[in-house]
Each structure stands twice: as structure tokens, then as C-alpha cells.
Write a structure and sequence with these properties.
Radius of gyration: 26 Å
Number of strands: 5
Distance between the termini: 79 Å
Shape: globular
Low-confidence stretches: 10-15, 30-35
Strand content: 15-25%
Largest sheet: 5 strands, mixed
Length: 245
């Protein structure tokens, strides 16, 4: 009987202080309540090529493309034009994410509008950080163009750039009209320069080979992986692997 007392005390204390209803949800509960995201946010930078004309044509082209996809009203974000490069942050319906990247790829291929378009990040989001879609050319005279150097890993620098653009979106959140957003953007380089990604940082990221170009990103994420069952694998290999075999 004395030997059973410690066991009784453990069971009693467990029921007293750790009731079953205090235990967290099970894995099945978590799977059943998993949230699906309908919005994707994508960050793309690119060098401006010789085929680029002006802000208005780029803005019209982007909005025309989104209209054809039936996503003009559901797309928000910001396109910032620098003297030599462009920074896209777009919040789009999840099902057209790859279509948007293909549109950028086509501009790069056909008209040389962009060069080395690079995907910094894509992420599913629950809440938008931008209220509308705006294209804006920064004040060239006040835009930082100094060479950028960093001792941080490339992914840290890329994350810093995307976070800065997200903060800029939240800063513009109170503006509900495109004209007011552009008015605020015209002052932000002087009043809140920390909310702008420097042109030097963008150029630095474009020179990094470890970040996916748009073409590479699409190939990796849209290509079909072909797998052969074991019974179709021929061994030994019918062709020689080495010329001296």
C-alpha cells in the first residue's frame, strides 16, 4: 500500500493541476483549422533597360495586364522607379502570382524594358500593407546613388530591403487616394529617407548570383519533376559514363 501512495499522488496532482481541458489543441485540430491565404506578396527588383520609356507607360501596361486577368481591383502595391532600376512590391491574388512574374519576364525578353529581373521574396499574407496600386518615379536629385557595400549575408540584405518596402507601405496606409500617395512619396526621400531602399542596395542585390532571377524562379517552381519508377530504370547505364571505359 505504501508503494502505491506515490503513484496515487502523481495521478491526483496531474488531474488537479493539469486538467485535460487545459491541454492545447491536437495536431488534427490544427490541421482542421489551418488558414489558407488568398493573397501573395512578391518583391522584384530589376535594372531598367534601353527599351523603357516612362512611368505612365509602365503603369498603364501593368494595370492593363491585371485587368485582362480580372485582378485589377484585387491588386495593391507599389512600383518605385529609380534612375537605373525599379522595385516592385505587389500584393496579388495567389492564383496569378506566376502570371505576374511571366509578365515581367516578357518585358525583359521582348522589349528589354528590364534587365536581370530578380525575385527577392514571395510570401502568403493575411493582410495587405498597401491600399492601392501606385507607380512612382523618385526624385532623382534626392535619391541615394552611392555604392552600397555590406558584410551581411545576401539573404539578410534582401530581407532588409523587403522589410523597408513593407514599412513604407504601412507609412502610406493612411492615404486612400493615389494622388495623395504620390504627394507623400515626393516628400518621403527628404522627410523619411529610412523608408526608401537605396538605389545602391538594389544594384548590390542585382549583382548577387545567389538570388533567383525571375526566369530561374519560374523554372524551379513551375517545371514538372519527372520521376521514373524502379522498373523503368536501366542498370547498368547503356552508355559509357567516361570516355576511357
Amino acid at each position: 500500500l505504501l508503494l502505491l501512495l506515490p503513484i496515487f499522488e502523481i495521478v491526483f496532482l496531474k488531474r488537479e493541476f493539469f486538467p485535460m481541458d487545459a491541454v492545447g489543441p491536437s495536431l488534427l485540430d490544427l490541421i482542421g483549422t489551418h488558414t489558407t491565404f488568398d493573397i501573395s506578396r512578391v518583391f522584384v527588383v530589376a535594372e531598367i533597360g534601353g527599351g523603357f520609356t516612362d512611368e505612365e507607360e509602365l503603369d498603364d501596361g501593368l494595370k492593363s495586364f491585371l485587368h485582362k486577368k480580372g485582378a485589377a481591383e484585387q491588386t495593391t502595391g507599389l512600383v518605385l522607379l529609380y534612375p537605373t532600376c525599379v522595385f516592385f512590391v505587389l500584393e496579388v491574388p495567389d492564383h496569378i502570382l506566376f502570371d505576374v512574374l511571366h509578365w515581367i519576364e516578357e518585358l525583359e525578353d521582348q522589349g528589354r524594358v528590364f534587365i536581370d529581373a530578380t525575385v527577392l521574396e514571395t510570401e502568403p499574407v493575411e493582410q495587405r500593407d498597401f491600399f492601392t496600386l501606385t507607380t512612382f518615379t523618385l526624385n532623382f536629385a534626392s535619391t541615394k546613388v552611392a555604392e552600397y557595400q555590406s558584410s551581411d549575408p545576401v539573404d539578410v540584405t534582401a530581407a532588409e530591403a523587403t522589410l523597408t518596402m513593407t514599412k513604407l507601405g504601412r507609412y502610406l496606409e493612411s492615404q486612400r487616394e493615389e494622388s495623395k500617395i504620390k504627394e507623400t512619396l515626393s516628400r518621403v526621400s527628404e522627410e523619411m529617407p529610412t523608408l526608401l531602399v537605396s538605389q545602391g542596395m538594389i544594384s548590390y542585390l542585382l549583382n548577387q548570383q545567389s538570388i533567383d532571377r525571375v526566369k530561374e524562379f519560374l523554372n524551379r517552381n513551375t517545371s514538372t519533376l519527372l520521376l521514373k519508377p524502379d522498373n523503368e530504370v536501366i542498370w547498368p547505364v547503356p552508355t559509357r559514363l567516361f570516355p576511357d571505359d
